[in-house]
Amino acid sequence: MGRLFLVEFDQTPEVHFYCCRTCQAHIVLAQHCFSRMEQLREGFFTNVVNVVVDERTRMEGFSQVEDIHCVRCNKPLGWRYIPAQPNGTVLLKLAHLLFWDGARLLNADTLLDPVVDQENQEDHDQENQEDQGNQGEEDEDDQGPDDNVDID
Ligand SMILES: [Zn+2]
């Protein structure tokens, strides 16, 4: 019932922020990320918007947590710890987010262009297997037609 009003950041070169990878709802400004754990692909954030928090708690490792979902598409994005951390700190999974770097939306965990999604990546891996012998000789001009690839 009723319209869902989402907080939206200015999508300008000066403003950097994270958004939901699934529906691109804006989630948190980059300035409110105070710790990125690159290997775990997680980050600690404050001032998160457009999320809902699960009422039921669960255990994550040795910690009690409440899961956080995107308010628009309901995808799980991370969790908050119980008891609540100072300043409403939450943990977000970078693999579930995109990052607006002022010009483009990038995968938040790799900061690379999200052109290749995971399904296509597997296909590419198979195509590239025969290329493994000549690594370093990759040439843009070699990208021939892929018509002979059977993907059905
Ligand atoms: Zn979403």
Automatic annotation (TrEMBL):
UniProt lineage: Eukaryota, Viridiplantae, Streptophyta, Embryophyta, Tracheophyta
Yippee domain ranges (all copies): 16-101
UniProt protein name: Protein yippee-like
Composition bias type Acidic residues, residue spans: 128-152
UniProt-annotated stretches for the region Disordered: 115-152
Organism, scientific name: Vitis vinifera
Family, similarity comment: Belongs to the yippee family.
Domain of life: Eukaryota
Cross-referenced InterPro entries: Yippee, Yippee/Mis18/Cereblon, Yippee_fam
Alphabetical keyword list: Metal-binding, Zinc
Annotated Pfam families: Yippee-Mis18 (PF03226)
